[in-house]
Specification:
Strand content: over 45%
Shape: globular
Number of domains: 1
Low-confidence stretches: none
Order of helices and strands: HHEEEE
Helix content: 10-25%
Structural class: alpha+beta
Number of strands: 4
Radius of gyration: 14 Å
Distance between the termini: 21 Å
Number of helices: 2
């Protein structure tokens, strides 16, 4: 997780690294590409070329006692070597 807001959003979702990996995999395979944009970590920080995706998936809702659709927004960058992934944004869409 590359930004403070992303860390907070992932914590609010109660996701661990495996959950984030699964969400990104689903975004890339079944999600909808939104756009590409330059993102900055902080006002004086480094920039990264990012892609954003929207993903809808069914998840169990304890209050409703059934699966309900959840729509996520993720934005990330992949390093030149393909081994570094920067997660810039990861949250439920409103």
């Amino acid at each position: 997780m590359w930004t403070r807001n992303c860390v907070q959003d992932v914590q609010a979702l109660a996701f661990d690294i495996a959950d984030v990996r699964e969400l990104l995999t689903q975004a890339l395979t079944t999600g909808h590409y939104i756009n590409s944009q330059w993102c900055v970590q902080k006002p004086t920080g480094p920039w990264a070329a990012c892609d954003s995706y929207r993903l809808s998936r069914q998840e169990w809702n304890d209050a409703a006692y059934k699966n309900l659709p959840c729509e996520y927004y993720v934005k990330f960058a992949i390093g030149k070597t393909g081994k570094l992934l920067l997660l810039v944004s990861c949250h439920l869409s409103l």
